[in-house]
Write a structure and sequence with these properties.
Helices cover 31% and strands 22% of the residues. The protein is an alpha+beta fold. α5 runs parallel beside α6 and α8 packs antiparallel against α11. The chain binds 2-acetamido-2-deoxy-beta-D-glucopyranose (4 copies). It comes from Equus asinus.
């Protein structure tokens, strides 16, 4: 393949793919422009939406260029030979013209089909020609009578989902549009208020921004004007400083990070889409999905690894995508046997971003615990108390490592842990959790969705986060373990939580939970952050308790 058409042609050739994006906007991708081949554009193996049967290419040449057009399809059972409305051989038109390629599925099987369109171009009947390869992928589905997918039907979960181009139903579209409009209005009002406030607080802000920038570190989100405004509003100098080195006060203002910045953060771990194969959907929310995926080794294509692949659907907003990428980086670069950080990302143009984490075959801890609860009804020995304490120790170990590294998790909960068949537990980031576990997050009057029932009082009231507030969340996680995934404070209104905690109320001791263990939880919920145990102490005391349990068996 030649590098530049310029070497051979002194003619102007333009070949572009013209496509209509979901939103109705027209878009064009140039493959050849002013004789220059865009290898970047050609390198895409673009995914054709399942419901799209026609691709339109625009082309023209200023002088005589001959072409030969051919197709290859890797699965004729799933797809017919592509049809075009131009001849297989001829001259590139001198005027801007369109040709159409038809990619029709046979409807006989479910399969992802690879399509190669090859265009050989020759100028002035010379011997030299340029080969252009256009690669496409399309998900073909077996045609059945419209099967309604029910969440409980195991068989339907085996169908291969199109991760990116599943068509949103009209009702969800309407829902998203209305939510979007509401958010825009709220956001606008918030901006106006913030601007007004900033005007009156400029001075305080100036003093404050210095401390804000000096206290933020690699993993924290960049501070924004909103942050400083909040900081000015809440006199944090009055709060007691714990023995943890830093008490960082941050706001999760992800709107301050653009999608481009979020993508830049994962550029160094970006891999090609070709290396990932998606299998079953493990978890699905309104805009996010977690797949069981296969990751092909970079050097040896025969070597494969299983993986979790987090991605978003078509209707996900830019903020949601940005949030997934940003939150996925929370544990990046940390190495501990009880942590599961992001390993790769896929941020190719024209594809929804994907985040890749190592696989843990029993999946999400919260879902696993709930499963245990169902099984427990028939088989009380399904999972022992000792196993649960062992899981808690592992979580405390991972958190202890985070505290030593001065990393604040801010959203520790069973839903943000994963487990495998050896009962090894790993803490992971909270990317997509808001979408996958919407009942665990609440908005308290503002636009921010918080894990209210897992938050320490100082985090709820003053937006203060520290390793001590992570200890609080650990106490709640321990409670989740002992109750096999119940929701804490289930009958307390999220708006009442702060008042309820201030009054000294906490979650009740679960049935069958030994007093010693409940005492550990209760310590984690001390009002004063300094009175809460450190993770290292929690590891120690849980280990002793675990040993004692073993001695009784
Ligand atoms: C064909 O390509 C060769 C190099 O591969 C070059 O030397 C030659 O000039 C080209 N011929 C024409 C007609 O462009
Ligand atoms: C284009 O050229 C290549 C290389 O000679 C050849 O293998 C292929 O069959 C040609 N394709 C078409 C569509 O003629
Ligand atoms: C091929 O189809 C497209 C779209 O239907 C049309 O715009 C174009 O003129 C057709 N080209 C030819 C050569 O018939
Ligand atoms: C579901 O799958 C099982 C085997 O896994 C099969 O026996 C059963 O017939 C399937 N049911 C449907 C509705 O396809």
């Amino acid at each position: 393949m030649c590098l530049s058409l310029h070497q051979y042609y002194t003619v102007l050739i333009i070949i572009a793919l013209h496509y209509v994006v979901k939103s109705g906007l027209d878009a064009e991708l140039y493959y050849v422009r002013n004789d220059l081949i865009s290898h970047y554009a050609l390198s895409f193996n673009l995914l054709v939406p399942s419901e799209t049967n026609f691709l339109h290419f625009t082309w023209h040449a200023k002088s005589k260029v001959e072409y030969k057009l051919g197709f290859q399809v890797d699965n004729f059972v799933a797809m017919d030979m592509p049809q075009v409305n131009i001849s297989a051989q001829g001259e590139v038109p001198r005027t801007l013209s369109v040709f159409r390629v038809e990619l029709s599925c046979t409807g006989k099987v479910d399969s992802e089909v690879m399509i190669l369109m090859q265009l050989n171009l020759t100028v002035n009947s010379s011997k030299n020609f340029t080969v252009l390869n256009f690669k496409r992928r399309k998900m073909c589905y077996k045609k059945l009578e419209e099967v309604k997918t029910s969440a409980l039907d195991k068989n339907t979960s085996r169908t291969i989902y199109d991760p990116v181009h599943a068509a949103p139903t009209t009702s969800t579209r309407v829902f998203y549009i209305s939510v979007g409009v509401c958010c825009a209005v709220i956001f606008l009002v918030a901006i106006i208020l913030a601007v007004l406030h900033l005007h009156s607080m400029k001075r305080i802000e100036l003093d404050d921004s210095i401390s804000a920038s000096s206290s933020s570190q690699g993993l924290s989100q960049p501070s924004t004007q909103t942050t400083q405004y909040l900081r000015a509003d809440t006199p944090n100098n009055a709060t007691p400083i714990t023995s943890y080195p830093t008490l960082r006060i941050e706001k999760n203002d992800l709107r301050s990070v653009t999608l481009l910045e979020a993508k830049a953060k994962v550029k160094d771990i970006a891999i090609s889409r070709e290396r990932i194969t998606l299998k079953d959907v493990l978890q699905e929310g309104t805009f996010g999905r977690i797949f069981h995926g296969i990751l092909v080794d970079e050097k040896d294509p025969n070597k494969e690894k299983q993986a979790f692949v987090k991605t978003v659907k078509d209707q996900a907003s830019e903020i949601q995508v940005t949030m997934m990428l940003t939150e996925s980086c929370k544990l990046r670069g940390l190495h501990h046997r009880n942590l599961l950080p992001i390993t790769h990302a896929c941020i190719e143009e024209g594809e929804k971003p994907m985040v890749i984490l190592p696989y843990m075959n029993w999946g999400n801890l919260k879902l696993f615990l709930r499963q245990c609860k169902l099984v427990e009804a028939n088989n009380p020995q399904a999972i022992s108390q000792q196993d649960l304490v062992h899981m808690a120790i592992q979580i405390a170990c991972g958190m202890s490592y985070l505290a030593r590294r001065e990393v604040i998790h801010k959203d520790l909960a069973a839903r943000n842990c994963v487990i495998d068949d050896t009962l090894q537990v790993k803490i992971t980031d909270n990317a997509l959790s808001r979408d996958l576990f919407p009942m665990d997050y609440h908005c308290l009057g503002d636009n921010e969705n918080r894990p209210v029932r897992w938050m320490a009082l100082e985090s709820l009231v003053n937006n203060e986060f520290s390793s001590a507030s992570d200890v609080w969340a650990f106490g709640v996680t321990l409670w989740e373990l002992m109750t096999l995934g119940q929701t804490p404070y289930v009958d307390i209104d999220p708006f009442e939580m702060a008042a309820y905690l201030k009054d000294g109320y906490r979650i009740a001791q679960p049935i069958n939970c030994p007093d010693e263990l409940f005492a550990v939880m209760a310590c984690c919920w001390a009002l004063d952050p300094e009175e809460r145990p450190k993770f290292q102490q929690l590891v120690q005391c849980l280990t002793e308790f675990h040993a004692a349990l073993g001695a009784y068996v």
